[in-house]
Design a protein that fits this description.
Strand order of the largest sheet: 1-7-6-5-2-3-4-8
Structural class: alpha+beta
Number of domains: 1
Number of strands: 8
Largest sheet: 8 strands, mixed
Distance between the termini: 51 Å
Helix content: 25-40%
Order of helices and strands: EHEHEHHEEEHEHE
Shape: globular
Strand content: 15-25%
Length: 181
Amino acid sequence: MAINEPHPKHPNFASILTDRVVEQFFVRLNVVSHIVDELLIVSPVLGTLSGTKMPIERLKQLIRVNKIQTYLVTRSPENDLTIGAPGHRPVLETLGNINGLEIRYNDALHAKIYVCICKDPQNNFAVVGSANMTRSSIERNIEVGILIRYAYQGRELIDELGYWIKNKLRLQTQVAKPIVK
C-alpha cells in the first residue's frame, strides 16, 4: 500500500505527510481560504516562510481579506528557544496588528498543530506533526505530519483538536501584547 493510498479500514480520513508538511497545510488553506471561518496555529517557533508557497505576508493577506478568525499559540519572543530563531519576532510583528487574530504565548509549548475550520465542516482539515512553522521545517528538516480530513473518524479528531486549542490550551496561555517594530 502506498503512503498516501487510503487504508481499507480507514478510508480517506488521514494521510501521512513526509514532504514540506507545513507548506502542504498552507497550500490547502489557500485553496479554501474564501470559505474559512477559523484558523488555529500552534507552533513553538515561527518563521517568515520566505521562499515557500505561503510567505507570512501572503498568510497575513489571506487572513485580512477573508476575515478569518485566527488563533496563534507560540512561545514568547524572549524564550530561550525563540531568541535564536531569526524569523520569530518578525512574524509576531507582522501578524500582531491584524483584526481577528489573537496571539498567545506559552513557553512550555512543544506541540505543532494546524487546524482549518470552514463554513461547511466537510472542508475542515488539520495537520498534527513535528514541524514548526518555519522555512527550515519545510525545506531542510526531516518532519512528519498526519493530515486529517473531516470524514469518518477525522470529524471527531478535528472537532476535539479545535476544542482543545480554543478552550484548553488558549486559556493556559498569556495574551501577547503587540510588538512594535
